[in-house]
Write a structure and sequence with these properties.
- The complex is a heterodimer.
- Helix content of chain A is 59%, strand content 7%.
- Chain A is mostly helical.
- Chain A has a domain of 78 residues.
- A three-stranded antiparallel sheet of chain A has the order 1-2-3, with helices on one face.
- Chain A is rod-shaped and about 120 Å long.
- By secondary structure, chain B is an alpha+beta fold.
- Chain B has one domain: Brix domain (Rossmann fold).
- In chain B, 24% of the residues lie in helices and 28% in strands.
- Chain B has seven helices and eleven strands.
- Classes of the chains: A mainly alpha, B alpha+beta.
- The interface between A and B is large, with 54 and 60 residues.
- Chain A: Keywords: Nucleus.
- Chain A: Belongs to the MAK16 family.
- Chain A: Its main location: nucleus.
- Chain A: InterPro entries: Mak16 (IPR006958), Ribosomal_eL28/Mak16 (IPR029004).
Chain lengths: 273, 274
Amino acid sequence: TKTQNFCRNEYNLTGLCNRSSCPLANSQYATVREERGRCYLYMKVIERAAFPRRLWERVLLSKNYEKALEEIDENLIYWPRFLRHKCKQRFTKITQYLIRIRKLTLKRQRKLVPLRRKIERRENRREEKALIAAQLDNAIEKELLERLKQDTYGDIYNFPIHAFDKALQQQEAESESESEAEREEEDDDDDEDVDKREFVEAEDSELSDFEDMDKLETSSEEEQEQEEEAEKKASHSRSKGKTPLKGPARRKRPYIEIEYEEETEPSTKTKAA
Amino acid sequence: QEKLALQKKRKKEREALGDKAPPKPVPKTIENQRVYDETTVDPNDEEVAFDEATDEFAPYFNRQTVPKILITTSDRPRGRTVRFCEQLATVIPNSHVYYRRGLALKRIIPQCIARDFTDLIVINEDRKIPNGLVLSHLPDGPTAHFRMSSVRLRKEIKRKGKEPTEHVPEVILNNFTTRLGHSIGRMFAALFPHDPQFIGRQVATFHNQRDYIFFRFHRYIFKSEKKVGIQELGPRFTLKLRSLQKGTFDSKFGEYEWIHKRREMDTSRRKFHL
C-alpha cells in the first residue's frame, strides 16, 4: 500500500497531504471543525486571498444532524463535489466522536496517575528494610506463646505450666499425688501425641482425637479441678480485661482483650457439656 | 577508617575493664529513634475508649453483626488477580468474590448494604498484578485505600503445607500505635468473625512496621510450652496506607480523614504515621 503523509495544517479536510486536500494549495477550500462541542463550517475563497485576517469564513452549524448537513449543502452549493462530500464526511465523524465523549463522561472515568520512579524505588527499599526489621516469624511466635500463657486457648493444650503446678502444690496431698501421677502420664501422652501430630502435619482429626483421649483419661475429679482452674483463669483474664490496662507494654491488649474476654466461656461450656 | 580505629579502641577498653565495664550501648534503630507521635494511643486514654465504643465498629465489637465480606476487583481482572481474590476468599471466612463487569461502585454499595454485607474489598489491578486495595466498612463506615505490593500467591510461597481450612482464624494485630493505626487495626479486626476456632490453629497477622502493614497467614503448632512452630500458608502481601475516608467510598465528595501527602510526610526518615 502506498504510504501517505499527514498534513499538519489545522484547516485540512482529510488529514492527508495531497494536492487536492491541501488548504494552502487550493484557493477555494472548505473544512468542518468543532470548537467546544459546536461544529463550524470554514470556507476560503479566492476573493479574500489578499486579506489573511478575513480569509476563513466561519458558519455555525445547527445541532441537528440532518439540518447541519443541509446547511453544509446550502453553503457549499456550486462547490466541487469532492469538497462537499469530504466536508459532510468529516462532519459526520466529528458528531460521532462528540457523542462518544458525552457518553463516556457519564460513565466512570479511569484516572491515570503517573508513577514516579524515584518514589517507587524509595518505597520498595523502605519496604524491604521494614520487612527485615519486622522479623515477622519471631513476632508471631512470641505473640502466640503469650496468648498461650494468658490461657486464651483454654484447655486445649495441656502443657505443664508453672502456675498450674503451683496451684496443684497448694492443694491437698492426696489429690496432689494422684493428680500429679495422672498428669505425668498425661504429659507423656501429650508428648507422644504432639510428636504424632508433627508427623502427620496439621490434620485436625488428630487434635479432636487428642481431646477425646484427654477426656477419657482424666477422672471426674481432675475435670472438676481443671474446670475450676480454667474458670479461675477465665475470671482472672476477664477481670484483667475490665480493669484499666497497665503501661505501654499492654497497648496491644485492647484488641486482644475485646476478642477473648468471652472466648474462654465456650471452652468451659464445652467441658461442662 | 577512623570509625574502625575508634571501635577497636573501645573494644580494648571494654576487655581491659572486664566486669567493671559499663553496659553496652543500645544500638540505634529507626524504631528507637522514631519521632514521637503525639497521636500515640495510650491504653489508659478514656477518650480513645469512648471513641471506640461509639464509632462505626461498635456494633461489631459488641457482637451485634457478623462480618460478611464482598471481594471484587477493578474491571477486567487478569489471571493473577483472580487467583489472588480466590485465595483471599479462602483466608477470610464468610467472604464472597464477585466480578465487576463495569459496575459503578456508587451503585453497588447500596446493593451490598441491602444484602447485609459488612465490608467491601476492592482489589485494584495494574499491568496484570494487583497493586491497590480499597477496604470499606459498609454501613457507612470508613474507607481505607492502600497501595499493595509484593503479593505472593500460595504456590509462590516456599512451604509444603496444605490449603487453609474453613475454620475461623485468629487475628494478630501488631504495632498499631497511633490513633490512625488504631482505627485501621480495628478495620482489619472487623473483617474476621469474633470467635476464632482454635481447632483450626490458623492465624492471620497484620503487622505494622514503619507504616507498612504486612499480612501473613500461618498455621501454628505448639511443640512444647515454650516453643511454637509456624508454617506459612495462604497468600501474603504488604499494604501501605494512602488515604482514609470517613464515609463509604466516594472519590469526589468524600470527607478524607487522612491522606498521605508525599511532600510533607515523607521528609523525615524517622517519622511514621501508623
